[in-house]
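Could someone model flavin mononucleotide with this protein?
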Amino acid sequence: MKKIKILAIVGSLRKDSLNRQLALAAKDIIGDRADFEILEYADVPLMNEDIEFPATEPVKRVREKVKEADGIWFFSPEYNHFFSGVLKNLIDWLSRPVSDEEPYVLYGKPAAVSGISLGMSGTGIAQDHLVTLISFLNMDVMNVPRVTIPNATEQLDDRGKLALTESYPFLEEQANALMDFVQRRVKDGD
Ligand SMILES: Cc1cc2nc3c(=O)[nH]c(=O)nc-3n(C[C@H](O)[C@H](O)[C@H](O)COP(=O)(O)O)c2cc1C
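Reply:
Sure, complex below.
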């Protein structure tokens, strides 16, 4: 069986982002069971139909990364009970057809959603909005299990890094479920 590819999309561009650290913890859990890469997209321009065709290099690159992936794992912060503007901008680009022949790259892609926040919602409210959007785009969403981590400051070590004491088993459970979810679809597609 071919090694599956998981592409992590982190909805925060912050260098020390907790959601990026969560994605890195997920990468460790998955280990060599899959190729796991975090998508870099800080250079993707703001959506503007005036610059849609021909696609700019950053847009072409992120579309290619999504196209190559067997599954997408979103790690979303919560901004004002919503997901971030940078993530919405990226998804808007990924939601547009590549050409007359090719549909948009998110179509039918297996997806999972996780997130960590300082507040009590643990990004659950943002995740609900994100799931509404990616379902509208006909992504194949794994709705359970989802990981929502509240009160992030309680899970940091002395240096302020994410230690994931309590939440680790939940992340592990979701990683295993996503591997299974994606593998089944890859097998069905063969
Ligand atoms: C504009 C903005 C709005 C925020 N709104 C929320 C919120 O609604 N709920 C929450 O739990 N945290 C909120 N926060 C705090 C974030 O949880 C915190 O900054 C978190 O570290 C962001 O994720 P990151 O570490 O991956 O960048 C907000 C932060 C910003 C910058």
